[in-house]
Amino acid sequence: MSDASGQPPNTIAQVGEMPVAAPRPRDWRGLVRVLGGIAALAVIVAAAFFIHALLNPPPANDPVRGKAILSRAEAANPQDMTFTVAGTVGATVAGAGFSTPLNGSGQVTRQPQRLHLALSAQSPLGGALTVEVIEDATTYYLKTAGLGSTDPNQPWTKTTTSPGDGIGGIAFTQFLDYRYIQNPIYVGDETIAGHATYHIHADLSSQINGAVATATPTGTSAKVTEDLWFNKSNYYPVQIVLHAGGDAQANTTAIAAKADETFTFTAWNTGVTIALPSPDQVQ
Could you give the CA distance from residue 202 to residue 119 in angstroms, rounded to a whole number? Predict the structure, then answer.
């Protein structure tokens, strides 16, 4: 059936319904603008936090944070460590002095608690001097070369001390025993040997200072300080620097001694073992 124009009748009109417009495509531009605004706000906030952190780093010389970092380092508990040593030792007696470089390497284990340290230096009297020490709890094995008095068949001498006394009042592992550290202060965040670290400065305990003093004549003063860098990820030591100095007066002779040693740790938890000298090599 056709109308006068010859076109089919309008079906919508025939059933009495209102014409319905075809749906228009969804306009996402408004949502995109909203999301873009949120993203821009997030960038601004992140930039603000970054600038705040950059302009306001953690406070240096912070004893509270220093103690907190040291506490975590005590709990880190590495089972073994390998390190190198570099530094200088020197003394001045009645105005005449000497200074010599010191180099070496070592390992330390926790179970059993042992340390193996080998050092070499130039003797003030001329020639090379090497010293090797093995510390096994309260027993020390010492081997030297360059002093002219070593028996080649029994190069090691053995000394037993009370717990914590060490040789001459100083145990070689005390610089790794954080119980002896006093007044730790957070210095800052630093990168050492490729590791992100916390830097702590501290004094070594009066027990060690007293041992340094009593090893020299009366009228002494001694100070031992320590700088430590701990890995941020596991709180293992990355580097430790010891500074030791002392002055003494023996009658009319003035004596001054100084040592600076840097221990750089190169490996941790590698299964290192430290063997003791065989009995037939010990005097």
Answer: 25
| Residue at 225 is within a domain | yes
For the chain, 283 residues long, give each residue's pLDDT as a single digit of tens.
545 555 554 544 444 555 555 555 555 455 445 444 444 444 443 444 344 444 444 556 788 999 999 999 999 989 999 999 999 888 777 677 778 888 999 999 988 989 999 988 877 667 788 889 998 888 889 998 866 556 778 899 998 876 555 444 345 566 677 888 889 999 999 999 999 999 999 998 654 444 444 444 455 566 788 999 999 999 999 999 988 877 766 656 667 778 888 999 999 999 999 999 999 999 8
In the DSSP assignment, the letter for residue 214 is H
Paired tokens of 281: 């090599």
Residues of the domain holding 39: 25-56
For tokens 């004094």, name the residue: 203
Q: Are residues 31 and 110 in the same domain?
A: no
Q: Where are the alpha helices (DSSP H) in 223-276?
A: none
pTM of the model: 0.71
Q: How far apart are CA 98 and CA 63, in angstroms?
A: 37
Q: How far apart are CA 62 and CA 64, in angstroms?
A: 6
| CATH code of residue 71 | 2.50.20
Same domain, 173 and 44: no
Structural domain contains residue 219: yes
| Other beta carbons less than 10 A from residue 162's beta carbon | 7
Domain count for the chain: 2
Instruction: Judge if 46 and 82 occupy the same domain.
Output: no
Domain membership of residue 52 (yes or no) is yes
- Structural domain includes residue 47: yes
